[in-house]
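User: Quick one: structure for sequence A, then sequence B.

Assistant: Sequence A:
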Amino acid sequence: MEPTQLQKVYDAANQKTLTLWRENPCIGEIRTERYYDPDKLALATGIRPQVPAPVEELIRELNTLVEGDRLADILPVSSVHFTFLPLTLPLYEENESLPTKAGELTNIWREYQGKQIVIRQLRLVALPSQLLLAGIPDDPAIAMRQSFCESVLASQWKEKLLQRHTGSPLPAPFWHSTLLRYSAQFLPTSLREYFARHQAVDFGEVSGELVLARVNYNWGKCLIY
């Protein structure tokens, strides 16, 4: 997806969310289940960049805003990541051996391991109960992700990849890190207002080397291969 198209996708997501918020001024039903399995790990590829100062400040402000709110799950600064391509659902224990076909995946990944990608024009994107930090990747990153995705689809890992992307495009269009998950249908007023004040802010750019890893839902646990 071209950068101008991606900006339009982010804008459309924000407008859709703002409409839902206007129609639903309260937080709605509280979630009784977690967003993701709290213990098991998934296979994923991505970068763990050095976090620019504006993003550190953004996370600090969000933490202050939701202090004491048990429904809010804020991404730690140390866990900021941008997924290149998520590969599986959370299927694996930390010390579990991967299936023998893992060798095929690591062979495919050799072409991409350690490649540097850049994501620019970082901005907030709102979903009904989440805040994302999303940006525009450079052209090489777009081409590499498409190539890697096609290689995985042609491998024994096709089924796992499709299971991970049920109901969403492949590869998913967003290039993002989920900063905040709220365990209700919708964000509370304080977070909606914060988004409204900061949705036009450019939080800079990030860059990093691609890794293949076994990760938990927020990359707080990241076991690199």
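Sequence B:
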Amino acid sequence: MMKICCFFILLLSFQSCATKKHTHIRQWAEGIQSATEKKYRVSQNSKKLLYTKEYLFTRNGRIKYSKTNDSLGNIIQETQKRLWFVVESYPDKENYYCKTRWKPGQRERISCYTRKQFKQNEAIYQYNPDGTIAKITNRFPPFFTQFFDYKHNYLSKISIKAVNDSLIDEIQIHCINKDEKGNCLKEIRQYSKSNLQEEIDFYPKYQ
């Protein structure tokens, strides 16, 4: 399960490659110039920082640059938007060059390569008409699909299923606090099968 959780963190970063507006994907209000996101593992009234992610957005709500640090402050990933692709940089392996290709039916195929054109990962993103994610199918190991459910126009559940359609885990999502623009500043995620609990704190800065 830890492998799935770690890969899930990378998939959230992977969304920065998408041509859809990141603010629409994450249901954030327009006008965010930059933001900081902190994710914690919650256990017995204590919190352990998992990562800190900093975003810098373009005017149209796409990610221009992002940096992810671990709990000790070490950089574990950086992304930088170029004209036709996104560069993902890591401290311990080659850069990835991620391309997004639009497919019929509100879908995008996001593929990442090394400079030598070796494909490292690929996922199919399917969107709802409002720009939010309907599901993400990972086409590299570990193979699984995430299904996104919404309630009262807010993400309420993510179901993670294996290729044989068996349930790996289910994440219940609750927004605890919102700002005046409607952005969720504190979110609690409860994993039903692994019994994990996480907290995501969001600090936006507006234009």
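The helical segments are 2-14, 22-25. The CA atoms of residues 12 and 24 lie 14 Å apart.

User: Thanks, that's what I needed.
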